[in-house]
Design brief:
Elements (H helix, E strand, L loop, with lengths): L5 E7 L12 E6 L5 H8 L18 E6 L3 E5 L10 H17 L3 E9 L6 H13 L3 E6 L6 H15 L6 E3 L8 H27 L14
Parallel strand pairs: 2-4, 2-5, 5-6, 6-7
Antiparallel strand pairs: 1-3, 3-4
The structure holds guanosine-5'-diphosphate (GDP) and magnesium ion (MG).
Magnesium ion binds next to helix 1.
């Protein structure tokens, strides 16, 4: 996709408040402070589009952005921030779980992990939900500029091992240097393309004439 424009749509407190499922969407998730807003701003060439938060974990809303009038980018609430009240932390799990399991137009998830840290229990939970729903995912390792090449390599291996996946599936990224920006866009295009193909083939099925639209005759009483 040739990125041209983005507009903020709305912030939803839960799945029922999300906008009508009119466009394919890609969601972005990760622990608070992982660099999610910075990644979105880098992808969309906007400073402060997805507000880079000074108080991580405060936003517990599902934020919708419409990109090129053709797909939604969905900024999910960050998790794992210790200062968030226990009640809010407890609400996060079903909110995100419901969204991931039930949002019909969700094509894939971009899961952000800090390249310097081992995946947290919540990261593992996110990964488990993805596998369960068989949702395509892109795993991005943020803040890669903070490490040397050698350190980057060994951290990528360690994170791959922790998640039980090939380290080649992990994409190092830096909002500071722009490292990985093109690769993330390509991967997002691929996620959206899967959905489009699936839609095209289900449209073919739908184009077949309906077998019967009339209600079955009622048996005489
Ligand atoms: N060095 C470096 N710092 C980053 C990068 N991405 C984010 N940060 C910093 O990490 C902090 C949290 O970033 P933010 O995008 O607000 O994280 P969010 O809570 O996941 O939305 C901020 O101080 C950012 O400036 C990066 O790629 N490199
Ligand atoms: Mg943020």
């Amino acid at each position: 996709m040739k990125y041209q424009r983005v507009e903020f749509v709305l912030s939803a407190p839960s799945l029922q408040h999300c906008p009508p499922a009119d466009f394919p969407e890609v969601a972005f998730a990760g622990r608070s402070n992982v660099g999610k807003s910075s990644l979105l701003n880098t992808l969309l060439n906007r400073r402060g589009m997805a507000k880079v938060s000074r108080t991580p974990g405060r936003t517990q809303l599902i934020n919708y952005f419409l990109v090129n009038d053709q797909c939604f980018f969905v900024d999910l609430p960050g998790y794992g921030y210790a200062a968030v009240p226990e009640s809010v932390r407890r609400a996060w799990r079903p909110m995100i779980g419901t969204y991931l399991q039930q949002r019909t137009t969700l094509c894939g998830l971009v899961l952000l992990l800090d390249i310097r840290r081992q995946p947290s229990p919540e990261d593992h939970m996110m990964f488990a939900v993805l596998s369960e729903r068989q949702l395509p995912a892109l795993l991005v390792l943020t803040k890669a500029d903070k490490l040397s090449r050698t350190q980057r390599f060994s951290r990528t291996q360690a994170i791959g091992k922790a998640l039980g996946i090939d380290a080649g599936a992990l994409l190092p990224f830096s909002a500071t240097t722009g490292l990985g920006r093109e690769e993330v866009w390509e991967a997002i295009d691929a996620l959206l393309a899967i959905q489009t193909q699936q839609r095209a083939s289900s449209d073919e099925v739908n184009h077949a004439p309906p077998a019967s639209v009339a209600p079955p005759p009622r048996a005489p009483e």
